[in-house]
Amino acid sequence: MSQFQSTQANKTLFLNTLAFTFCFAAWLLNGILVTFLVDNQLFDWTAIQIGWLIGIPVLTGAIFRLPAGILTDKFGGKPVFTTLLLICAVPLFSLSYADDFWSYALCSLGFGLAGTSFAIGIAYSSVWFPKEK
């Protein structure tokens, strides 16, 4: 591995880690917000609704992890990760307008897509490093 390739590999690893951190924070933000909003009585959701709102991002992330990995293998990590970040920005912004269970649940679906970032980042980072690293 040349010096340029090593520099590029480390830069890619850093940017993937940073993007993954943002996605993971967004993914977790959903569950934290649900409990905060209910505990402070801003929404009167039932225990079942709370469970759905917390579970939707986890399920969405699990379901779309495989397709995201396949897209990364086909198109490369940079365009797939960039697209994921742009797509996930929409529900993050839209959440500020969510005023009922269904709008929050729809945003939760978008939060779940952020959970696929690990599959994208790992697939993209592994291309830059030899097996022993």
UniProtKB/TrEMBL annotation:
<keyword id="KW-0472">Membrane</keyword>
<dbReference type="Pfam" id="PF07690">
    <property type="entry name" value="MFS_1"/>
</dbReference>
<feature type="transmembrane region" description="Helical">
    <location>
        <begin position="12"/>
        <end position="38"/>
    </location>
</feature>
<dbReference type="GO" id="GO:0015112">
    <property type="term" value="F:nitrate transmembrane transporter activity"/>
</dbReference>
<dbReference type="InterPro" id="IPR044772">
    <property type="entry name" value="NO3_transporter"/>
</dbReference>
<keyword id="KW-1133">Transmembrane helix</keyword>
<protein>
    <submittedName>
        <fullName>Major Facilitator Superfamily protein</fullName>
    </submittedName>
</protein>
<dbReference type="GO" id="GO:0016020">
    <property type="term" value="C:membrane"/>
</dbReference>
<comment type="similarity">
    <text>Belongs to the major facilitator superfamily. Nitrate/nitrite porter (TC 2.A.1.8) family.</text>
</comment>
<dbReference type="InterPro" id="IPR020846">
    <property type="entry name" value="MFS_dom"/>
</dbReference>
<feature type="transmembrane region" description="Helical">
    <location>
        <begin position="103"/>
        <end position="129"/>
    </location>
</feature>
<keyword id="KW-0534">Nitrate assimilation</keyword>
<dbReference type="InterPro" id="IPR011701">
    <property type="entry name" value="MFS"/>
</dbReference>
<feature type="domain" description="Major facilitator superfamily (MFS) profile">
    <location>
        <begin position="1"/>
        <end position="133"/>
    </location>
</feature>
<dbReference type="GO" id="GO:0042128">
    <property type="term" value="P:nitrate assimilation"/>
</dbReference>
<feature type="transmembrane region" description="Helical">
    <location>
        <begin position="50"/>
        <end position="68"/>
    </location>
</feature>
<feature type="transmembrane region" description="Helical">
    <location>
        <begin position="80"/>
        <end position="97"/>
    </location>
</feature>
<dbReference type="InterPro" id="IPR036259">
    <property type="entry name" value="MFS_trans_sf"/>
</dbReference>
<keyword id="KW-0812">Transmembrane</keyword>
